Amino acid sequence: MNEFKNKQAGILFGSFCADALSLGVHWIYDSDKLAKEHGQITHYKTPGTHSYHPHKQAGEQGHVGDQALCLLNFLIKEKAWNRSRFMEEWLGMWLDYNDYVDGATKTTLGNVQNQTDKTQGGSDSVEIAGPARIAPLISFLSNSSEEEVVRASVEQTMLTHRSKEAEESAIFLAKSGYQLIHGANLLDTLDETAPEWALKKADSVLSEDTVDAITKLGPACSISSALPSVLYLAIKHGDDTETAFIANAMAGGDNCARGLALGMILGAANGQSSIPEDWINELNAAKSLYQLLEAAS
User: Fold this and answer.
1) What is the largest distance, in Å, between two alpha-carbon atoms of the chain?
2) pLDDT digits (tens, 9 = 90+) for 25-44
3) Residues 6+ apart with CB under 8 A from 77
4) Residue in 65, 83, 222 with CA at minimum distance from that of residue 151
5) Are 225 and 218 contacting, i.e. CB atoms less than 8 angstroms apart?
6) Helix (H, G, I), strand (E, B) or coil at 287
7) Cα–Cα distances in Å, from 279 out to 19, 32, 108, 132, 283?
8) Which of 57, 74, 91, 207 is exposed most, by the fewest CB atoms within 10 A?
9) How does pLDDT run across 59-117, given as a tens digit for each residue?
């Protein structure tokens, strides 16, 4: 595997593996309780009946990861990005979905009922979930231009998250992911592409350990908290993908959505080869990820 393909695969497996690693401890906000009850999260765990994902198994994706997987399967099938056709696919996934349904999804599903153009019904959500789903697009379009990747990523995001914050985050993740796949340096890329406000917040806690830093930044779903937390983890553990993903899981809160975004950045920077083989092999969606990589080649 040459370096480009290593990173093209890395952005995909990084995003999905970091999400799956956090699934078993998703939305536990008490980090001490998380550590006491679950220990160090170094492998996939089944969430359990008292979690937000009672029907999930170890190695599966969270509810946002499932939407990223919907996008991935659409790209495998269609071999092209088209927001109208994808919106039909996205709407269809909820007909028999048996996991958590987030607020942005509920709002979007309600909005589109009375609209002819289903692509214009997105919520005004400022949560990171919308832009965090774009790893399949960046990987699939990585042989295209950066402008095309950014355009498609913003289109995907705004189908459900029509806020300026979500659009800004999608542009950042698309630009940084694309540039990193094509060999750019991690820290330079983050300095050049990340929103200045988010970098400042991340920099302000760099001297602290992960749990304390993310507690201060905010472990919840909002971009105002989640994006600086992702940047903190990417800068703090930039050359160690495994440690970064474990630290993200152990910090609790919305570690799944953070993981999807963090996995894109470090997967693209360090490649698939930086991700533990057992995480790749035990990922439920691994076969589909390889199918997308074949379609993108």
Assistant:
1) 51
2) 999 999 999 999 999 999 99
3) none
4) 83
5) yes
6) helix
7) 11, 25, 33, 20, 6
8) 207
9) 999 999 999 999 999 999 999 999 999 999 999 999 999 999 999 999 999 999 988 89
Token pair listed for 254: 């919305």
CB 83 within 8 A of CB 156: yes
Residue 143 CA from chain centroid, whole number: 21
Helix (H/G/I), strand (E/B), else coil: 138: helix
Q: At what angle do helices 241-250 and 255-270 cross, to 10 degrees?
A: 170
- The single-letter code of the amino acid at 221 is C
Q: Which residues contact 273 (CB under 8 A, 6 or more apart)?
A: 1, 6, 10
- Which tokens sit at 126? 């400022």
Neighbours of 18 (CB within 10 A): 32
DSSP state of 162: -
Gyration radius of the chain's alpha carbons? 17
Tell me which DSSP letter residue 116 carries.
S
Cα angle value 284/285/286 (rounded, 5°): 95
Unique residue bearing structure tokens 């048996």: 98
Cα–Cα distances in angstroms (integers) from residue 108 to residues 71, 72, 92, 290, in the given order: 17, 20, 13, 30
pTM of the entire structure?
A: 0.97
In the numeric block, which tokens belong to residue 81?
């990005």
Q: Round to whole Å and give the CA distance between 256 and 129.
A: 9
Whole-angstrom CA distances from 89 to 14, 68, 73 are 24, 12, 9
